[in-house]
Specification:
Layout lengths: L5 H9 L7 E5 L5 H9 L5 E6 L2 H13 L5 E5 L12 E7 L8 H9 L2 E12 L12 H16 L6 H11 L3 E12 L7 H14 L4 H6 L2 H11 L3 E12 L1
Parallel strand pairs: 1-2, 1-4, 2-3, 4-5
Antiparallel strand pairs: 5-7, 6-7
Helix pairs in contact: 1-2, 5-7
The structure holds S-adenosylmethionine.
The site of S-adenosylmethionine (SAM) has 17 residues, from helix 2.
Length: about 250
């Protein structure tokens, strides 16, 4: 399990995920959460991952084939189009997806219709609240972190969905069973994933207004040096989680 799955795993286990369940992973991307579910359910039950991005679904399908999984299915589908044709689910799971939806309330209401009476939905989102507060100790890390959020906002994503989730689910008429939040801490020992993330998001970050030359100066080496010299903890992100039922 990668570190980035540790918080997700806690949310899923606390929701009572069990062998044999039917689970829907919405906005599944390349299937990372679906594969985590597969491990937690020890290869039993049925997992369906949906995503609007064809390339992401193709990558998820390839990985499922490589792993020779028969109980995990990936489908190109918009979350807004989820309907009874997929059946109902014991668990509906989504990670970093509500932040990208133009109308998350509508999507939540649609999902509630395919949630089993005894089932629950588990969502994990990030939130920019607090980011930027360490600019004195970590000027480069803070700038890189802000470029990432600037890009999310430029793409019309909601950088405060973590703190807004509770209100959204209440508005949708769902019962909130638990909420939690946990900072993602990085140090010289853990290293930072920001250099990698900037690389993955390069084109999007430039489209959001950061110049190629600024990006080029933000090297892995510069980030590592800043972390090593700081002798301090960098708060890289804030994970928010919620578990709700009908
Ligand atoms: C940040 S990725 C998260 C992927 C995955 N949940 C994870 O945590 O690894 C967000 C995903 O949401 C998908 N997405 C965005 N809007 C969507 C929509 N309306 N319906 C379905 N998927 C959507 C994107 O294609 C992308 O794969």
């Amino acid at each position: 399990m990668t570190d980035r799955n540790a918080f997700t795993q806690k949310l899923l286990l606390d929701s009572g995920i069990e062998k044999g369940m039917r689970v829907l992973d919405v906005g599944c991307g390349n299937g990372e959460v679906s594969f985590l579910l597969q491990e937690l359910m020890e290869g039993t039950g049925e997992i369906i991952g949906i995503d609007s991005n064809e390339a992401a679904i193709a990558a998820a399908k390839n990985m499922a084939d490589e792993k020779q999984l028969t109980n995990v299915q990936f489908i190109v589908m918009n979350i807004e189009d989820v309907s009874g044709t997929l059946g109902t689910f014991d668990r509906i799971v989504g990670r970093r997806i509500l932040m990208y939806l133009p109308d998350p309330l509508q999507a939540i209401k649609a999902l509630a219709k395919v949630l089993d009476e005894e089932g629950c939905m588990i969502f994990q989102e990030s939130d920019a609240t607090g980011s930027g507060s360490q600019s004195e100790t970590f000027p480069l890390h803070t700038m890189a972190q802000q470029w990432v959020w600037q890009t999310v906002v430029h793409e019309k994503g909601n950088s405060h969905i973590g703190t807004e989730m509770y209100t959204l689910f209440k508005k949708a008429g769902l019962q909130v069973k638990s909420v939690r939040a946990e900072p993602v801490l990085q140090t010289a020992e853990t290293g930072s994933d920001l250099g990698w993330l900037l690389g993955v998001m390069r084109e999007r970050i430039v489209a959001a207004g950061v110049s190629e030359s600024e990006l080029a100066r933000m090297t892995d080496a510069a980030l590592s040096k800043e972390m090593a010299n700081s002798q301090a903890i960098f708060i890289r992100d804030m994970n928010f989680g919620i578990c709700v039922s009908n």
